[in-house]
Design brief:
The complex is a heterodimer. By secondary structure, chain A is of the alpha/beta class. In chain A, about 30% of the residues lie in helices and about 30% in strands. The chains are: A alpha/beta, B mainly alpha.
């Protein structure tokens, strides 16, 4: 699916990518991790055919620079920072759908699934939408076509738990039919989504390993947390995860996406002293 | 072609919402309104009265404003979009570089030409309502001049945007380009150069090669067919081109220069890093 052969990129004498070589097969889900300046963004731009470089990049056998329209028709990209586009959201949807030769309704559908009211924002400038709305729209545009490769830079960072759960479901639907590259500074943010990790440092691959799959992307966990005493701060945090409070038992209960378990535990860890018991059970069906 | 039109349309929509476009439209609409307000149609200069007087003044003002406005706004928005990550995202969509660059050029051209032309059209419409005679030949030629002027400086703007990697550098380069053209206008530097005994042929060649000078001379030729105000250089110009030939040259040469600059910009854009 993707093959990189000795890819090198230099900016003003500084080597940013230093002889990268690897292959990715269809269905692989890769966490691309590394600190700032590791070369993640440069690598992504080379994959998108946006940077000229030494060495060879092939996606489905084609050069993303030379055959860009054909190659990019099969790539869905979600950037880390939404671009400051002044055009209305509806115009962006029409533009992307028009270029990909797909009906805008398909992007609308995915955006709605993610909880975005497309009709309400159609005439609003993209740049004026909230961070979460922008992210949902960019994800909908990336998933609204038959992408064989999904490149996502911190895609779930601005999403609420409910939207994240739906996002993971949407990824699960494409898990066998697409290769995914999910870029992040930290592995724990994306570990539940991937089956392989590539860590970069100063333009080199320092780790390339398989990840034990923690379960299906679409798995669900029933969760119950009992508190020593009520607390408004944890109540607010759990309400954000759509948890319900049982006053009789002084316990909160709700459902979280399997891929979100680490993130959820990270939130709960801030209130460890208040928790008297925590139970997480994966649904079997 | 679908990618080309989609990109052109996108650039038009983006520009219409930009503040520079609102100011740009306001400036040219305002100029026409002020010229009417000050009763320019009733004054007489060099035998010109009515709408022709207004059009002559309008084209002179346009020549002063349009080049720097187009250069700065083009490089600011194109280089600014690149810096802000707009290119990174939009060029991740399946659009060919040809369609992207030339679609952007076409969209931007429409956006910068229409307000200037629209203001002139408004003047003509108002004149028709007021029963003022409309000099259609002058209107047609000035329209062609404005179209060529917009093409020329948009081409330079796209070339600078392709070369410069940051907004600051692009703005500086655009300003220097405009200043260079301004310095080589006949009445300023060329006069000094002739005084310092450079060959008149060289001075006239420089003047002819300067698109700003070409516009200026062509606009003058509408009310001074013998180009008396230009002095000896008029003999060279009229000898080489003739009056009509020069008018044609003043439209075709800057337009071709603009397209050639944009084409060079495209080659540089295509060969380098996109975002």
């Amino acid at each position: 699916m993707i093959r990189l052969e000795n890819v090198r990129k230099t900016f003003r004498g500084v080597r940013v990518l230093d002889g990268l070589s690897f292959e990715l097969a269809l269905g692989e889900r890769i966490a691309l991790i590394g600190s700032n300046g590791a070369g993640k963004t440069t690598l992504i731009r080379c994959l998108l055919g946006e940077y000229v470089h030494d060495g060879e990049v092939r996606i489905g056998g084609a050069d993303p620079r030379r055959d860009r329209a054909a190659v990019l028709a099969g790539i869905g990209f979600v950037p880390q920072l939404p671009p400051p586009l002044r055009m209305p959201a509806g115009q962006l949807i029409d533009f992307a759908a028009g270029l990909c030769g797909k009906a805008p309704a398909r992007i609308d559908d995915i955006a709605r699934q993610l909880g975005l009211d497309v009709d309400a924002i159609r005439t609003r400038q993209f740049v004026r939408l909230s961070g979460g709305m922008k992210q949902k729209l960019l994800i909908a545009i990336a998933l609204g076509r038959d992408a064989k490769l999904l490149i996502m830079d911190e895609p779930a960072a601005n999403l609420d738990p409910e939207a994240r759960r739906i996002f993971f479901d949407l990824l699960a639907e494409r898990a066998q039919a697409a290769t995914m590259i999910i870029s992040s500074h930290r592995l724990d943010e994306v570990s539940a989504l991937v089956n392989r990790v590539i860590e970069m440092d100063t333009g080199r691959i320092v780790l390339d390993d398989k990840v034990a799959e923690p379960g299906a992307l679409s798995s669900r966990l029933d969760c119950r947390i009992r508190l020593k005493h009520p607390d408004p701060a944890i109540a607010k945090a759990l309400a954000g995860w759509k948890f319900a409070f049982d006053a009789g038992e002084a316990a909160w209960s709700g459902e979280i996406a399997g891929a979100d378990r680490l993130r959820f535990l990270g939130v709960v860890s801030r209130y460890t002293g208040l928790v008297s018991s925590l139970d997480m059970t994966e649904r079997t069906h | 072609m679908k990618q080309f039109w989609l990109t052109a349309r996108l650039d038009i929509v983006e520009s219409l919402r930009a503040r520079w476009f609102q100011i740009y439209s306001l400036v040219f609409g305002g100029i026409v309104a002020l010229l009417f307000l000050f009763g320019l149609t009733e004054s007489r200069v060099l035998g010109f009265i009515g709408l022709s007087r207004l059009l002559v003044t309008y084209i002179q003002l346009t020549m002063a404003i349009l080049p720097i406005f187009v250069l700065i706004t083009t490089v600011r928005s194109v280089a600014g979009d690149r810096e802000a990550g707009v290119f990174e995202y939009l060029l991740s969509l399946p659009v060919s570089l040809w369609a992207w660059f030339w679609g952007k050029f076409a969209g931007r051209y429409i956006v910068i030409f229409l307000p200037v032309f629209g203001a002139m059209l408004l003047a003509v419409a108002w004149a028709a309502v007021q029963d003022i005679e409309v000099p259609w030949d002058m209107f047609a030629y000035y329209t062609a001049l404005i179209a060529a002027m917009a093409m020329c400086f948009l081409g330079f703007g796209m070339l600078i945007s392709s070369i410069a990697r940051s907004t600051d550098v692009a703005q500086g380069a655009a300003f220097l380009t405009w200043l260079g053209f301004l310095l080589f206008l006949d009445l300023i530097l060329l006069g000094v150069m002739i005084q310092e005994r450079i060959s008149p042929e060289l001075a006239v060649t420089i003047a002819l090669a300067n698109p700003l000078q070409a516009f200026r001379t062509a606009a003058l030729s509408m009310f001074d067919p013998q180009l008396i105000v230009l002095g000896p250089s008029a003999y060279v110009i009229l000898d080489i081109f003739g009056a009509d030939g020069y008018k044609l040259f003043a439209v075709a040469y800057p337009a071709a220069l603009g397209v050639a600059s944009a084409a060079l910009g495209f080659l540089i854009f295509r060969r380098g890093d996109l975002p």
